[in-house]
Write a structure and sequence with these properties.
Structural class: alpha+beta
Strand content: 15-25%
Number of strands: 4
Shape: globular
Number of helices: 3
Order of helices and strands: HHHEEEE
Distance between the termini: 42 Å
Helix content: 25-40%
Largest sheet: 4 strands, antiparallel
């Protein structure tokens, strides 16, 4: 089995556990152009009246900045970054940072409930960095399936 197939299987399994119903749509990231005539990308902004899809670029921008500043970021770091950027902590969920054996998890899943949709992020070495998607809210009112960590800080 090739590495890319293994990574794809791990990502699919992690997203299924996170309550996602579809494979995430790859999001192009803002990258610098080799030419000098292009203007720099305009930073995304939080759109309180916007949809989850309209706020995904800002969600991505915040999370990419968090993991760039702290490549070993854990759930608290990701949640704190989102809160500092203006997302509502009460609308968030995050998976555990450690397994039941006390080892670091392969990937952390986290989400922000935005109206009737969820901004869902995933970060970890085994999934090759950061990924995101917008998914419908679950019937239970949350975004992630399974046991999540209490955000009590």
């Amino acid at each position: 089995m090739t590495r890319s197939v293994r990574v794809g299987l791990v990502l699919a399994a992690a997203l299924a556990l996170a309550g996602c119903t579809a494979t995430p749509t790859p999001r192009p990231s803002a990258t610098a152009s080799s030419g000098t005539s292009e203007a720099p990308a305009v930073p995304a902004e939080l759109k309180p009246e916007g949809t989850a899809e309209e706020n995904l670029p800002f969600f991505d921008q915040v999370n990419r900045a968090t993991v760039a500043a702290k490549p070993e970021a854990v759930g608290k770091d990701l949640i704190d970054g989102l809160v500092a950027a203006g997302f509502d902590k009460a609308a968030m969920q995050v998976s555990e940072d450690k397994t039941t054996l006390g080892r670091p998890v392969d990937a952390i899943e986290f989400a922000v409930l935005w109206k009737d949709q969820c901004l869902v992020g995933q970060f970890g070495a085994t999934v090759q960095g950061y990924h995101s998607t917008v998914q419908p809210k679950l019937d239970n009112g949350g975004c992630l399936i399974g046991k999540t960590r209490t955000i009590d800080w």
